[in-house]
Design a protein that fits this description.
413 residues, alpha/beta, Rossmann fold, 8-stranded mixed beta sheet, 6-stranded parallel beta sheet
Length: 413
């Protein structure tokens, strides 16, 4: 097949969704498909390049020309509506690549849908967050999981982080161009059962039967080789430690984790490896080591030395890859019973689950694993077994089948 993948971000950007689409593109290429990727251009990156046989095209969009669309000039998001410049670039790229199927994710879906108007090419949407329901993409409304979108409700929720004009623009885009996506979408791939339930509720609505829907787990990250942590370049504690990996922000539960850690008596060290965000804590308590933007190989080496992992997300994290990274290293994980985490962790069998935002429950679970080495080992072994089937040879055929089904439906629809 000739496959065009469209994404807000692509390598060298760091993040779960970015890694997942890169792995999917690479693995599809290894199976002899012709894969191209279209993404938003950023300063300092090539407009076109080849990455492991994948042709990457970076298109200039409105977000790169209008500064107020993104607070971070180094990470400009596609807007939640068709970007005229992106649409034009995608139409030209579609004419050039002649794809059999277009697989889009993020808010780039809006431009992909517009670019496909008048063409008999199926659009497969990959849902890795909640951007079709939520202007913030988190499905969080003032600290709690949102029960569904509404124009005034969404503007009120988004205006604090975005400001009123941007909140109105983002909310209007999601509601006004909802029908555009529905007019072009052939299939939806969701990364977890929770994400699929939100897609059916908020995007597909009364027409889910007309759209192919599949829950397909993303591919766990390949181990990026091994590195030595003994040379002092990465100042990890000498003794085994509790490990958190992810964005150091409120929705990821970082403040809850620090509160729970404070409750422990004489705990092992806590290591936080992640990226900085506007709500990242400015100071950290004694016993906490913070390391920023580490290479993936270093993260995986850190997992080898960890006692266990913590994934304390407050938001319904769609399918955090960090859970499977820890599991691959035979580590028990304490996660929150929210979003896609429950797809990966079965409480008491291959990890522990606690209510989101509950520092007391998290502290109790941490104490339990600290004080019970046999339980840590048992859960870690079960965790490693539970992900052994999540390999490209089992996941990629599911994508191939979804693409082919979308192609066939488009031909005969």
């Amino acid at each position: 097949m000739r496959i065009l993948m469209v994404s807000d971000f692509y390598a060298p950007f760091i993040g779960g969704a970015e890694y997942e689409i890169q792995l999917l593109a690479t693995e599809l290429t290894r199976r002899q498909h012709t894969v191209s990727v279209a993404t938003v251009w950023h300063t300092g990156l090539a407009a076109q390049e080849d990455q492991e046989g994948v042709k990457v095209y970076r298109l200039r969009g409105l977000s790169t020309r209008v500064p107020w669309f993104s607070q971070n000039p180094g990470r400009r998001f596609h807007p939640p509506f068709p970007d005229p410049s992106m649409v034009w670039g995608l139409r030209r790229l579609i004419d050039h690549c002649q794809p059999d199927v277009v697989n889009a994710q993020g808010w780039s879906v809006y431009s992909a849908a517009a670019a496909l108007l008048g063409k008999r090419i199926p659009l497969v949407v990959s849902a890795r967050d909640y951007g079709f329901s939520c202007a913030l993409r988190t499905l969080m409304n003032k600290g709690t999981i949102c029960t569904g979108p509404g124009p005034l409700k969404c503007v009120d929720c988004a205006r604090q982080p975005y400001g009123f004009p941007k909140a109105v623009a983002a909310t209007a885009g999601i509601f006004l161009f909802h029908s555009l996506i529905l007019s072009r979408i052939q299939a939806v791939h969701s990364v977890s059962r929770f994400v699929e339930s939100v897609i059916k509720r908020d995007l597909l609505g009364t027409r889910p039967g007309r759209t192919i829907t599949r829950t397909i787990s993303d591919i766990p990250l390949r181990h990026s080789g091994t590195v030595s942590l003994e040379n002092g370049d990465y100042p990890l504690p000498d003794e085994p430690f509790i490990l958190f990996v992810g964005a150091l922000q409120t929705n990821k539960g970082i403040h809850v984790l620090l509160e729970a850690y404070h409750q422990l008596e004489s705990p092992p060290p806590l290591v936080l490896i992640g990226t900085v965000w506007p709500d990242t804590p400015e100071t950290f308590p004694s016993g906490v080591t913070v390391l920023y933007n580490l290479p993936h190989a270093v993260v995986m080496a850190a997992w080898e030395r960890a006692l266990f992992g913590i994934v304390p997300s407050i938001w319904p994290d769609p399918l955090p890859g960090v859970v499977r990274e820890a599991m691959s290293k035979r580590k028990a994980v304490i996660g929150t019973a929210v979003g896609g985490i429950s797809d990966m962790i079965t409480d008491g069998e291959n990890g522990l689950l606690v209510p989101p935002g509950d520092a007391d429950a998290l502290a109790a679970a941490m104490n339990r694993l600290i004080q019970t080495p046999d339980l840590r080992e048992q859960l870690g072994e079960a965790a490693q077994r539970s992900i052994q089937m999540l390999i490209p040879d089992t996941i990629i055929p599911q994508f191939e089948s979804l693409y082919q089904e979308a192609i066939d439906q488009c031909k005969h629809g």
